[in-house]
Design brief:
Layout lengths: L4 E5 L6 H11 L12 E5 L5 H11 L9 H25 L3 E5 L2 H11 L4 H11 L7 E6 L2 H7 L13 H18 L2 E4 L4 H16 L4
Parallel strand pairs: 1-3, 1-4, 2-3, 4-5
Organism: Prochlorococcus marinus str. MIT 9201
Pfam families: Thymidylate_kin
GO molecular function, one term: dTMP kinase activity
Length: 212
């Protein structure tokens, strides 16, 4: 039996990192993990050793280093292929649980809906790089693009975060479409941290408490 794979998606500033930290404290003591199983938390891009180097290339805000949209897509895909091969699949096959800050649908939202790359091309590439792995449960932490920019107003943005409100609106609409198609659990990220955390935990318990 494989472990469980949980992904948290959403535009920048929605609180993914905070909620993964909350889950990493709660899940090991929740009674859901089998004896000897571990919880692995990871992210994209940058979950593997090679991915950390690719993350630097992808998010570099130097205009002279800006990749084309297609090159950007392929860099994300290379990161994911390595992430699945070296981190996600080995953990799941070991009956461990994996929580990832983003997975393949972020590429569909950002490079597909955001960059206007053909969605079928992206899906075909992802069918290769995901190597059969897909989340057991995906949470979409939903905030408006305006709220996203407000929350990050004092941060130094990376290249993707610097794209501006119109790009972010397209990405956010893409996430909404994907969430509806794939029946994700959608949670308003405008609520306080504890309320969001409790909703995520309740959903995980409802989905997995009888499926250990």
């Amino acid at each position: 039996m494989k472990g469980k794979f949980i992904v948290i998606e959403g535009i920048d500033g929605c609180g993914k990192t905070t909620q993964i930290e909350e889950l990493s404290k709660w899940l090991p003591n929740s009674g859901l993990l089998k004896k000897g199983s571990k919880l692995i938390t990871t992210r994209e891009p940058g979950g593997s050793n090679l991915g950390k180097r690719l993350r630097g290339l992808i998010l570099d805000n130097n205009e002279n280093n800006k990749p084309s949209s297609l090159a950007e897509l392929l860099l994300y895909s290379a990161d994911r292929a390595e992430h699945v091969s070296k981190i996600i699949s080995p953990a799941l096959n070991n009956n461990d649980w994996v929580i990832s800050d983003r997975f393949s649908d972020s590429t569909l939202a950002y490079q597909g809906y955001g960059r206007n790359i053909n969605l079928e091309i992206i899906k075909n590439i992802e069918s290769i790089v995901c190597q059969g792995e897909s989340p057991d449960l995906t949470f979409f932490l939903e905030i408006s693009p305006e709220e996203s920019l407000f929350r990050r107003k004092n941060e130094i943005p990376d290249r993707i975060e610097s794209e501006g409100i119109k790009f972010l609106q397209k990405v956010n609409e893409g996430f909404k479409i994907i969430a509806k198609e794939k029946k994700w659990t959608v949670i308003s990220a405008s609520q306080n941290i504890k309320t969001i955390s409790n909703q995520i935990k309740e959903n995980i318990l409802n989905n997995f408490s009888n499926k250990k």
